[in-house]
Amino acid sequence: MENMYEGIFVKEFTLFYGDELTWHLVEELDNQTVTTEDQTIHYTKKSKPEGNSQYDLINHMMEAIQTGNRKAAQDNTQTYIEQNYFISRLFP
Question: What is the reported pTM?
Answer without folding.
Answer: 0.70
